[in-house]
Design brief:
- The protein has two helices and six strands, in the order H-E-E-E-H-E-E-E.
- The chain is mainly β.
- The chain has a single domain, classed as Gamma Fibrinogen, Chain A, domain 1 (Alpha-Beta Complex), CATH 3.90.215.10.
- A hairpin with a 6-residue loop joins strand 5 and strand 6.
- It is globular and about 35 Å long.
């Protein structure tokens, strides 16, 4: 499957066009379990604010826990721009990816693919399966937006 990313600048323009947007995250685990999380509010801030993420209004029908709640109101980090909330750790360096890293609690869908059962920081990870405390490591992840 091809990796597609429209880029933060395009996401910023799209989610600030006067309409409100929803975000859906789909995952397939290494065990073949399909899960999703739905958020009824999504907005990406301007570059001058490091593409700050606004993600809210988690839909309770979701089958993944509300793991992005830890990333709401967080600025985007890269290896060159450490915007996470940890003073001694650079999450973008650890995960080898750009993302809205918070304070160690995270859903990271932009990391490298690592075959199961290797569990490291690399390999798409999204919090936990709804109603459990079990982390989900994904072999497939997709984030989709649409206007409400």
């Amino acid at each position: 499957m091809e990796n597609l990313f429209s880029g933060n600048e395009n996401m910023q323009r799209t989610t600030n066009d006067g309409r409100t947007y929803s975000l859906r995250v789909d995952l397939i685990s290494y065990l073949g379990e399909e899960r999703f999380a739905l958020y009824n509010t999504l907005r990406i801030g301007p570059e001058s604010d490091s593409y700050r993420l606004t993600v809210a209004r988690y839909n309770e029908t979701s089958t993944l826990d509300n793991s992005l709640k830890f990333h709401n109101d967080i600025r985007f980090s890269t290896k060159r721009r450490d915007n996470d909330k940890l003073a001694t750790t650079d999450c973008a360096e650890i995960f080898a990816a750009g993302w809205w890293f918070s304070n160690g609690k995270c859903a990271v869908l932009t990391t490298s693919y690592v075959p199961y059962p290797v569990i490291t920081y690399n390999g798409g990870m999204y919090g936990s399966v709804h109603g459990t405390n079990k982390q989900t490591f994904a072999k497939f992840a997709r984030m989709m937006i649409r206007p409400n």
